[in-house]
Amino acid sequence: MATLQEKYRTELAPALQKSRGYANVMEIPRLTKIVVNMGINTQVDKDTFKALVEDLGRITGQRAQVTKSHKSIANFKLRAGQPVGARVTLRGARMYEFLERLIHVALPRIRDFRGIPNRGFDGRGNYTLGLKEQTIFPEIDPDQVKKVHGMDITLVTTAKTNEEAKELLKLLGMPFAAANQAA
């Protein structure tokens, strides 16, 4: 069985080049990285924070980097340097493996799933998807979860427009919702 990365190289890139009429191979849009970000409430205790960071590492297969606040904000009870989240940047084979698991395993496990929303594009060919809970990934045992928490998954592409990016992601297998359907 061919991996998603091999499928992109052998089938999808030539199909995109033909359909869009790219003269140069470097013009073909491709996925450069996936950033998985989890903003964690500063009011949670250290054990829960550590468990959420470990969950993110288990989901992505790569150790999560703890992000810290840059500024102190009194209204949020936030001090500079205080841990506020975790993120993982995936590239190469690990990125394609994660995308494959997201498309074929995690997204179908969402209750009443009818496709991902079309409104997650930023105008420059990148797509961000928000998930409400980490338990949709098979690596996470729902019984062991201390706190259900969401995350943002950003797919960064070399596409210049949203249309190019959407075509690339559709070919990779992203299940977009129907245009007339609100997700």
Give the arrangement of secondary structure elements.
Elements: H1 4-20, E1 31-39, H2 46-60, E2 65-68, E3 83-90, H3 92-106, E4 127-131, E5 151-157, H4 162-172
Helix pairs in contact: 1-4
Q: How would a crystallographer describe the biggest sheet?
A: 5 strands, antiparallel
Q: CATH superfamily assignment?
A: Ribosomal protein L5
What percent of residues adopt helix (DSSP H or I)? 25-40%
| Total count of strands | 5
* Architecture (CATH level 2) name: 2-Layer Sandwich
> How much strand content do the residues show?
15-25%
Number of helical elements: 4
Structural descriptors:
single chain; five-stranded antiparallel β-sheet; 183 residues; 50s Ribosomal Protein L5, Chain: A; alpha+beta
Describe this structure in words.
The chain is of the alpha+beta class and 183 residues long. The chain has one domain: 50s Ribosomal Protein L5, Chain: A (2-Layer Sandwich). It contains four helices and five strands; from the N terminus they run αβαββαββα. It has a five-stranded antiparallel β-sheet with strand order 2-3-1-5-4. The protein is globular, with a radius of gyration of 18 Å. The relative contact order is 0.20. The model has no long low-confidence stretch (mean pLDDT 86).
Q: Summed up, what is this model?
A:
The protein is of the alpha+beta class and 183 residues long. Helices cover 32% and strands 18% of the residues. The protein has helices spanning 4-20, 46-60, 92-106, 162-172, and strands spanning 31-39, 65-68, 83-90, 127-131, 151-157.
